[in-house]
Specification:
Elements: H1 2-14, E1 18-22, E2 28-34, E3 44-50, E4 59-67, E5 71-72, E6 86-92, E7 96-102, E8 110-111, E9 115-122, E10 132-141, E11 146-154, H2 163-181
Antiparallel strand pairs: 1-2, 2-3, 3-9, 4-7, 4-8, 4-10, 5-9, 6-7, 10-11
Length: about 180
């Protein structure tokens, strides 16, 4: 029984930060998580998927605004402008200037079953991303329907801990919990 409790506590203490949300109509899924595979510190991945929900919808246009001024999509890892979207900023005066990814009239409609990976970094090196922040996603389907969705995504509270250090902290935490369980 002690081992089960120990495993459960370790899982909840060491679970990675990960957010996954789907629009109310099921058309778009956003997954936001830290990139732990590339070795680049404090780089986060936003997977943007356009789902095929039937109902005759075959394409969309969208506007995605991150209400977090620390997030930067205009970095070397992203393609800035494609046939489907442009990366820029949205000025919400006096509240701030926020990153935005959007399609516009000159861009093609995004077909269903399309997946994008956007990479977010910090605006200023060493500054952490804010823990929780709001995301507003407005999308239009090929029938002219407009949908507004507001989400809260979770980011890190402070600067990312390098992987080797994270493993050492995990081992130390497991050791402490084992001692406390005796």
């Amino acid at each position: 029984m002690k081992k089960i409790v120990l495993a459960a506590v370790l899982f909840f203490l060491c679970a990675p930060v990960y957010s996954s949300v789907t629009t109310a109509d099921g058309l778009i899924t956003l997954d936001y998580y830290e990139d732990t595979q590339s070795g680049i510190e404090n780089r986060w991945i936003l997977d943007f998927s356009v789902n095929d929900i039937g109902q005759g919808i075959d394409s969309i246009k969208f506007e995605l605004t991150f209400y977090n001024e620390e997030v930067d999509f205009s970095n070397i890892y992203n393609v800035q402008n494609t046939q489907y979207y442009s990366i820029g900023y949205y000025a919400d005066i006096p509240n701030g200037i926020f990153p935005r990814i959007a399609s516009d009239e000159q861009k093609s409609w995004v077909p269903v079953n399309t997946d994008f990976a956007f990479y977010t970094t910090n605006q200023f090196f060493g500054d952490p991303l804010i823990a929780d922040f709001q995301v507003v996603l407005v999308h239009y389907d090929n029938f002219g329907n407009r949908n507004d969705d507001h989400f809260v995504l979770q980011g890190p509270i402070g600067p990312a801990v390098p992987e080797p250090m994270g493993m050492l902290l995990f081992a130390f935490g497991a050791f402490l919990i084992k001692i406390l369980m005796k």
